[in-house]
Amino acid sequence: MRYETRTLAVPGQQTGPAKLNIYLLDPLSVAPDRRRPMVIVVPGGGYEMRSDREKEPVAMKFLAMGCHACVLDYSVAPNRFPVALEELALTIATIRENADAWHVKPDAIIPCGFSAGGHLACSIGTFWNRPEAYEAIGKTPEQVRPDGLILCYPVITAGEYRHAGSFCSLLGEDAGEEERKKVSLELQVSADMPPVFLWHTVTDDSVPVENSLLLAGALRRHGINFEMHLYPSGCHGLSLATEETAGSKDWTVEPCCQSWISLVQSWIEEKYTE
User: Fold this and answer.
1) How far apart are alpha carbons 121 and 171 in whole angstroms?
2) Proportion of the chain in helix, strand, coil states, percent, rounded to 5
3) Stated pTM of the model
4) pLDDT in tens, 114-133
């Protein structure tokens, strides 16, 4: 396995460049030219921080599936929208530009976001062909387009069921209604979104399950291919829902939710591997 790091500088960053940690599987002697999907792990943290529990442990799972993986430490508060969006867009463009050298399938670049990171991942799915995503970084829509989205208990709506802290950090305390509507992603879905894998727990009391339900309704109305799994129990921020990612938070071990990672493996294999 090869490991690389990149820094990602975009206009308007107030806290220095974002960091991209890249994990590349070695080519196999039996298939030296094989190209693999690349999963971009986007941790949560309310746009205030980035949760370690949703970083490398998740990336290692995707490596075990036969995917390349990377972890994006994107900019959080006091940075505001669209800085993190531009960083994710630049990440996708960077991977696509290095697809030959890294043995990446250029049409299988998939952000996997958790909580507020799910909002960021979903944002590139809705904004990839809008100037907010690509103009300031000097790229084209085709360069920053994601090929799929994996959304884990995502923050979606800035409406009734919003996670208020995430939008305060993303937009600032004085954001107006139009600004909030712009980042309320169930209102931004279009027919140009890629396929989506989505999961949430019904008992999430931090980011209500209505976030995923609102997104699913919008995806269905626009004819977007999506797969959704709702689990009957589990708190917010489960990550893999295993001992590996629990640490001292033993309440985040939730056996009924542990299947999401094998389900997403099947989804990737069906859509993005030959």
Assistant:
1) 17
2) 40, 20, 40
3) 0.98
4) 999 999 999 999 999 999 99
